[in-house]
Amino acid sequence: MNYIQLKTLITTRYRKTTFTILSLMYIVGFIGLRIPLTQEYFKVLSPFNLWASLILLLLFHQDFQPKFILFAIITFLVGFFIEVIGVHTGIVFGEYQYGQTLGIKLFEVPIVIGANWLILVYCSGVIVEHFFQNLKSSISGKIILSIIAACLMVGLDLLIEPVAIRLDFWQWSFNKIPVQNYLGWLVVSLVLQFYFINSKFLKNNLLAPLLFCLQLLFFLLHTLLPA
């Protein structure tokens, strides 16, 4: 049995278990962050949650050819270093700085931010390609797919921002989220999504839609329910 066959067997056998574990991670995390007594402990766990989410997501990926590995590395690095530029210059997303919640920093940016960009680009791209496969046949269709996926990411960021401030993920100058942030997200997301759409590797990851929905619900519930 080769690696691909073994991996397929494992992901098929433990699919429900993994789905359950991932869902419980976000449910327990949400509850823990809502309870004042446990909030500080769960804030410390936030970067571990993101790393675990990425690892589980990659376990369900089915095509580790060089093109995918290159995509993953480039997306991670672009996402991380665009944040480095943003933090130090304010010209990408506006004036902001990271707090302590997201863990170890390099150049004043948590390393896990690269993982977060990779997760969001990958999951959004997988979802859009699944529902609009017929658009991939032309350049104009690929651009449309990229725009839709980028808009999904910006829509999620709209929910993330107020919660991120509350949990000290990051803080904005003058405590005001600038429109520039969303425009910056749209441009960077669009570039990375166009790269994803044009990359030739298998993208039928069954965990991607669940992970995106869990993040969406996590931040939506934090936004809707009073602190």
Notes on the protein architecture:
The protein is built from eight helices and four strands; from the N terminus they run ααααβββααβαα. By secondary structure, it is mostly helical. It has one domain. The strands form two sheets. It has a two-stranded antiparallel sheet with strand order 1-4. Helix 1 packs across helix 2, helix 2 packs antiparallel against helix 3 and helix 2 runs parallel beside helix 8. The chain is globular and about 50 Å long. The protein starts with a helix and ends with a helix. The relative contact order is 0.15. This is Carotenoid biosynthesis protein. InterPro entries: CruF-like. Keywords: Membrane, Transmembrane, Transmembrane helix. Pfam families: Caroten_synth (PF04240).
Compose a concise summary of this entry.
By secondary structure, the chain is mostly helical. It has helices spanning about 5-15, 15-35, 35-60, 65-90, 110-130, 140-165, 180-200, 205-225, and strands spanning about 95-100, 105, 110, 170.
